[in-house]
Amino acid sequence: AGAEVVKRAVELDLASRFQESLVCYQEGIDLLLQVVKATKDEAKKHRYRQKISELLFFSDGKYHKQIRIEENATGFGYEKLFQEYLTEIVSEVWVEDPYIRHVHQASRYSLYNFLRFCEMLVKGPCKVRTIHLLTSYDEGNGRSQQISGLEEIQQSLRNYGVTLTIAFSSSIHDREIRFNNGWMIKIGRGLDYFKKPQGRFSIGYCDFDLRPCHETTVDVFHTKHTKKM
Fold first, then answer.
1. Per the database record, which ranges form the MIT domain (predicted)?
2. How many CB atoms lie within 10 A of CB 167?
3. pLDDT, tens digit, for every residue of 118-169?
4. What is the Cα–Cα distance from 179 to 120, expressed in whole angstroms?
């Protein structure tokens, strides 16, 4: 399986489809690392390690792409932004966003947005088993509703075999999402870049691809794994 993925990575690289090739390179590296761990033959281990080193060299391990979402633009649901980076090897996700709070806020639906994001992870094709959330406490009277909502999401995810860990920080400012295959996405507005729906029965209320967006910037990075071979 690893050889086929690497072959595909090379083909994409030669076709100048660098973003897709990097995904395949990373997946191939991870598959080979699993083989190294399972192999007892030292000669084979040495050959696999050499191949992994070559792949790390060719893939470079560095990538940066910027997406500009214009005011009132549509077609930017979570699947649109994240799906291509959620390869089958993704099992762990980190979300840092200071505003995962309750819906009492006039312009924010962040708790529902986080739920939608989790639903996307559950649907796959990745096999996420752990989601780590770092956010800040709601200020004022919304704290108990915030904690209650997050605990409800936590329990619901547990029914799907996914563990949600929740931590709070008063100093968190950055908004970023990281996957354990090396991809990191930074959104200027975090998960809350959608505008408030016009009504509960308006187009775009359920389908985020049809929901108008606030203007924001999305930066996508990839950093080379530092796993011990």
1. 2-56
2. 10
3. 999 999 888 999 999 999 998 777 888 899 999 999 999 999 999 999 999 9
4. 14
What is the C-alpha to C-alpha distance for residues 41 and 44, in angstroms, rounded to an integer?
5
Q: What is the pTM of this model?
A: 0.72
What is the distance between the alpha carbons of residues 204 and 74, in angstroms, rounded to a whole number? Answer: 9
Residue burial 135-151, b: 16+ Cβ < 10 Å; e: rest:
bbebeeebeeebeebbe
Integer Cα distance of 138 and 145 in angstroms: 9
- b/e per residue, 10-20, with b = 16+ CB within 10 A? eebbeeeeeee
7: number of Cβ within 10 Å: 12
Q: How far apart are CA 117 and CA 209, in angstroms?
A: 13
Cβ–Cβ under 8 Å, residues 111 and 143: no
Handedness of CA 2, 79, 215, 184 (dihedral sign): negative
The C-alpha atoms of residue 110 and residue 159 are separated, in whole angstroms, by 22
Query: What's the CA dihedral at 108, 111, 113, 116 to 10 degrees?
Result: -160
Q: Tell me the torsion sign for CA atoms 85, 89, 95, 96.
A: negative
AA letter at 65: K
